[in-house]
Amino acid sequence: MEKPAPGAAEGPPSNALQRLETPGTGRGMSGDMATDQVNGNGNVSEEPMDTTEVTRSEHFPALLEAGLPQNVAEKLDELYVAGLVAHSDLDERAIEALKEFNEDGALQNKSAFLCGVMKTYRQREKQGTKVTDSTKGPDEAKIKELLDRTNYTLDVTTGQRKYGGPPPESVYSGAQPNAGTEIFVGKIPRDLFEDELVPLFEKAGPIWDLRLMMDPLSGLNRGYAFVTFCTKEAAQEAVKLCNNHEIRPGKHIGVCISVANNRLFVGSIPKSKTKEQIVEEFSKVTEGLSDVILYHQPDDKKKNRGFCFLEYEDHKRPLRLAVG
């Protein structure tokens, strides 16, 4: 990752990962700026300083010494201070992964992604899973090149990577697509990402969004994705063009029109829970819940069978709950 030269002007920070400036950072001034600041007596007029105090943890210097990018170190330290992540949760593998974290604005929702990275490493540590070169995720340079070309956004969380939704107005400015515009893509190689998927599917027509399902423990995809097009015609064309397409040597993907499923199965429910209690609990963590289907014990109507089905207004809402 290239770092700006000393004294070079910095671009505006990402909305999701704000740069917190501390007093006395000593930013460089260009020659023109210095000339403009000097008055007739040869004295440099003082520029107002930002006196806002920023709370830093005792581990912040260690993050910088470890080689983390300034933006990433600052945001991670905010998570320390907020108590969302402890410094002890990080090992050398986590630090190495964070050194490669994209800080140029290509990724959105960075706070959620950082939390996900930490939770993933804690799970890996418990399970004894090792990080290898093959599980480091996508080539960020290629992802950035794709986003620069298309002007789409990329929202990355621990459960999925969402490209677009909505697309840029220059691509499509109409209403959100209805049923029949989404396709299901299966048999995707686990180490394949948007830089290979988007160029393939955009041949069929303008893409509304592409949602690649992710495995947070491995950092690889789960082998399937959903692509919503702006029109039904584009979705049908994608099936014709891409079904059984050899996306890599010997690797053929399967593509079909997605069938909406608004129902989500939930198991391991305490048998004493009522329908009203289940509705109340799940309404706190998800939206669009329209009904709960609960089955009772045949010999005791006061107890359920330990599972239920959640009915949603549309199939994307239970998917968001399932992938976190």
UniProtKB/TrEMBL annotation:
Chief site of localization: cytoplasm
Composition bias type Low complexity, residue spans: 1-13
UniProt KW keywords: Cytoplasm, Repeat, RNA-binding
Superkingdom as given in the UniProt entry: Eukaryota
Residue ranges annotated for the RRM domain, each copy included: 181-260, 262-316
UniProt-annotated stretches for the region Disordered: 1-51, 157-176
Name listed for the protein in its UniProt record: RRM domain-containing protein
GO molecular function terms listed in the Swiss-Prot or TrEMBL record: RNA binding
Subcellular location: Cytoplasm
One Pfam family it belongs to: RRM_1
